[in-house]
User: What shape does this take?
Amino acid sequence: MTADRRKSGPVTSPGRRLLRLGGLVGRVGVSVAAERTLGLLRSGPVAEAKRLENLIKNALRITETLGEMKGAAMKVGQMLSLQEGWLPPEVAEILRRLQREAPRVPPEVMRYEVEGSLQAPIDELFGEFDERAFAAASIGQVHAARLADGRRVAVKIQYPAIREIVIADLKNLERLFRSLFAMVFDADFEPLWEEMRDRLLEELDYDHEAENMRIMRDLHEDVPEIVIPKVIDSRSTDRVLTMEFLAGIAPRDAVSDRYDQDLRNRWGRVLFEFQIRGLFQHRMLHADPNFANFSFLEDGRMVVYDFGSVKRIPDKLASCYSALLRSVIDGRPEEVPEILRALGATRGDGSAVEFELLEPYLNLLADIFGRDSEYRFGEDPDVYEKIMQAGMDNWTQATDLRFPQDVILVDRSLAGHFGNLMRLGARGPWTQIVERYIE
Assistant: This one.
């Protein structure tokens, strides 16, 4: 019976997974190369239409392959999907499927995992247990259940053999990304990879996630607008995490016309301050900006899920981010290169990054934080195009930049939430909020 159930789970062989990943990279690479060649023969609207068609095809390939593979491969795909602002809307929507439409594992397999981890039949563990998952992600899926006393709970269960899958993926992904990285950047890949690897491995330990949830609940005890589920210790292990069931308005509904803009502004402010508070006050940052990790309540509160990726913020990092924002708010952007150098973000020879390279991004920050009036995310519909164009214009001068590994998850989280606030169209006094924390 065990063998049959295992067959229903994801592919665990490192060799087979490498072939899938390698095949995906090869197909996408050939497609991109062909598009570049044909692009030289096209111009105007025809070229743009064909480019978008090619992007959509590749997004579908990535979504299908990484979604089926789960593990670290799918996690990387989800991280790519968070950069939706850099992508055409049609492509971003396809990649968002990795956040909300991950293929489910058959119910008998997940039942086996629960019973094996908690060492008891599922009927003894729960008064009710819905075998249909209501959410699925890269390393596990979530089922609704009830305890014997009637309390509703959510049970997060790791996929079978997921640790072997992630370890296999990490070896394969390191090999692939090291090669791709070397083609573009003349920088040390190792610190960047170590941070990603260590954080992904942390997400495999549900005991670690449960402890993150307890700490974050305590830290937000006096912050009524943030709601964090309580861990049910007696039904949790390192592979099964049971928590109180807290339902809310899903992000895709929260950004719709069902809710007025004033309420979306409130949600945006709560989300923004949650991040700023974590970075500067609590020094514990919820570092997975997947919008599906949040839901919203009609009274303006926000429910936060998934604490597998929580970044402890070193004092030096918080101080440098504080100094960077202060220089932008006060209209002294010329100080930023030296602030970044103190942080460890430099040229390969240790010199400061040139101001001209940073200026397009500092102009964006100044537009948000350098004004006394409120700013609405999405106010400039072309902001992402401008950022992307700046990156394309300057990429040849940015190939030898060095970044401290601590900034990777922080920047990923802040950039991801920039996109979330754009989707909410949130307007708020962001400068005043930030100043309360960086003083």
About this structure: Residues 35 and 172 are 27 Å apart (CA to CA). The chain is about 55% helix and 10% strand. The two ends are 61 Å apart (CA to CA).
